[in-house]
Amino acid sequence: MGLPESGRAVGTTALPRPPAPSVPKLGVGLGYQPELRSFMERRPDEFDFLEVVPEVVWNDLGPGHPSRYVPDAEASAFLEAQSHERYVIPHSMGLSIGSAHRFDREHVEQMKRWHEWLRFPWHSDHLAFHLAELDGEANANLTLPIALDREALQMVAGRAAEVRRTVPTPFLLENNASYFRLEQQDFEEVDFLNALTRGSGCGLLLDLHNLYVNSRNLGLDWRTFLDRLDMDSVVEVHLAGGMEMDGFYLDAHSGPTPEPVWWMLEAVLPQCANLGGVTFELFGSWYEPMGEDALRRQLARVRKLWSRHKPEPVRRVA
Amino acid sequence: MSLSAFQSALVRMVSDATWREDVRTGGSLAAFDLSERETRRLRAAAGDPGLAVTATLVRSFRLGKVLNLLPMTRTLLGDARLGQEVRCFWAVQPPRTFYALDEAIAFAEYLMKRNWASPFALEVVTFERALLELRRARPAGEGVPAQEISFCHDPRDVLGPLSKGQRPGKRARVRSCVVRASLDERGQVAWS
To answer: What is the predicted ipTM?
Structure first.
């Protein structure tokens, strides 16, 4: 394929870096889950912003439907109330930006409508795909890895740039967790991410737990990854916990953040000049087993590290 | 089309274990318009334990939707028969949606077309599908159509035990009737 030995892309790393996305310093984020509503209402001072997967809050009736996105009234009312006190940041899983068979512009338009509603300072999605053509459109129900090749880079970069033009706020893509590796890719993951953020102007949502998952399952060296990553592109960081299954470590969002992920956070916080926030993710069904005290300890630990390296979080004024 | 075809094949591999094994052992990929590199990737991935784990996660996610939303059907059929039916359904229907309700309704509709030895199976599946249909997301202002369920047995003798996690007995009285379910103004199910 004519790649240099490092596997870095010829012609993309040479691009001048677009201005880094500029976002307010929001501080500590917590992922929305219906089971966490009570915690969020009782403990409003323990997190600074709320992150929400929009697909949890709406029902998607499918492409082309005249009223495609049907909001969940109760959840929407909760987000509306929260948005008067703090920023509500969408972290979507529905775009499937890596799907080659189509680009879902209706989803992008929906995010534009959400921006008009919630006025978030950035939004994000996953660098992955879950939709593919299979006697109709199949939905894998899981973010699958895209092949880190030039063709995919060109496709995703073009789409990310289009999202940026449509939704007038910075757009981030999240590094994916995967349990298998695709052979003979043009890029290593970190080089693909650097080339993507340079080529499209999108920011990076650096999911440190995903990086940990890939280091556990695929043998990826997370220190080398972080050494080579363009830290100026990092706008948000994700933390989470996982579990073991069949000899694999899963990105299950099932409990406290593992200690090595905290080491990663301590390493990257001083380097990410454009970081807007650090978000802890927990699936709602794991809240009860984990317990309120343990959740509070996670958020407090993030806050302590944030305070050491970053300015006082910006509060939203209603 | 090559990248698109590669992704189609990958999704099929995580949703169809039989086909994945076929690919692993050299089965044809000619139905997909793949480059040589993509073909090599798929064959290697097919034998990767990590892909099997990915497939397990996809299966667990799909199965969870069915178990949560069709509890009476599960009790009536038992886990072994339900598992068999789920596998048959998945062989013809790849995952189509994130949404649990849509997946469970599609599976219920598949079950309704099956031939059943159990005298209660069709009415129980139809009953649970109808309840899910009432809860299906609809655009604002669109009415929720009432659902009619035909019973061959007294519904109390069938649904009563199932609601307690027990299978209906042979003593269920034969009684043909049609039950109508609709949503009232508070969004609660009303029966007539």
So the answer is: 0.92
Hey, is the C-beta of A15 within 8 angstroms of any chain B C-beta? no
Backbone angles phi, psi at A129, to 5 degrees: -145, 150
Distance between B12 CA and the closest CA of chain A, angstroms: 8
> Residue A93: left if φ>0, alpha if ψ -120 to 50, beta else—which one?
alpha
Number of Cβ pairs closer than 8 Å across A and B?
A: 119
B94 and A134 within 8 Å at the Cβ level: the answer is yes
- Considering the entire predicted model, what is its pTM? 0.92
Residue A11 has pLDDT above 50, yes or no: no
Q: CA B130, B132, B138, B141 torsion: positive or negative?
A: positive
B6, B95, B137: residue with CB nearest A139: B95
For A70, A72, A91, B99, the CA distances from B137, given in Å and listed in that order, are 7, 9, 22, 10
> Which residues neighbour B119 within 8 Å (Cβ) at sequence distance 6 or greater?
B152, B153, B172
* Facing residue for A139 by CB, picked from B4, B54, B98: B98
pLDDT digits (tens, 9 = 90+) for B31-50: 999 999 999 999 999 999 99
Q: Do B138 and A70 touch (CB under 8 A)?
A: yes
Spatial separation of the C-alpha atoms in residues A183 and A6, rounded to whole Å: 16
Percent helix, strand, coil in chain B (nearest 5)? 60, 10, 30
Is A283 in CB contact (< 8 Å) with chain B?
Answer: no
